[in-house]
Write a structure and sequence with these properties.
The chain is an all-beta fold. It has no helices and ten strands. The chain has a domain of 97 residues. The strands form three sheets. The protein has a four-stranded mixed sheet, with no helix packed on it. Strands 4, 7, 8 and 10 form a four-stranded mixed sheet that branches. A hairpin with a 2-residue loop joins strand 5 and strand 6.
């Protein structure tokens, strides 16, 4: 961010402004503060959402038999994690997130706000050298 001041006036040794001197622009450079980032909201599948659809994830971090997924979503109860489908083969693990609206969210007003969410999926076998595939990006 670059902030420019209106200018600097010439002053005498006592710090008084001389009205007969021109004002010169002096750039003032400031950096944005490093605001702490909020961690993703931990969620679990609810299993009873309506109007479900596939949702792509943005990150997948695997360790042994667990895969931690992160994705952008909407606010609850308007957007909830319905279910997670996992298909394991010898070469890949395809994970598909399904989101929808909570069944109890009848006649609810929803704000359009993006929230980062996370969930952890348990695998049948350790991830090993298998590739993680995002089922939400497949058609």
């Amino acid at each position: 961010m670059l902030t420019v001041s209106c200018g600097a006036a010439a002053t005498d040794t006592a710090g008084r402004v001389n009205p007969h001197e021109p004002v010169t622009a002096q750039p003032v450079i400031s950096t944005p503060s490093q605001a702490p980032t909020k961690p993703p909201k931990q969620v679990k599948p609810v299993g009873d959402a309506v109007n479900t659809r596939k949702v792509p994830f943005t990150k997948a971090k695997a360790k042994d038999r667990q895969v931690k997924l992160v994705w952008w979503s909407g606010v609850e109860p308007c957007t909830v994690l319905d279910s997670v489908k996992v298909k394991e083969t010898a070469k890949r693990v395809t994970i598909t997130l399904y989101e929808g609206t909570a069944a109890k969210a009848q006649n609810v007003s929803c704000i359009m706000l993006a929230i980062e969410k996370t969930t952890t999926v348990k695998l049948k076998s350790p991830i090993g050298k298998r590739k993680i595939v995002d089922g939400g990006k497949q058609h």
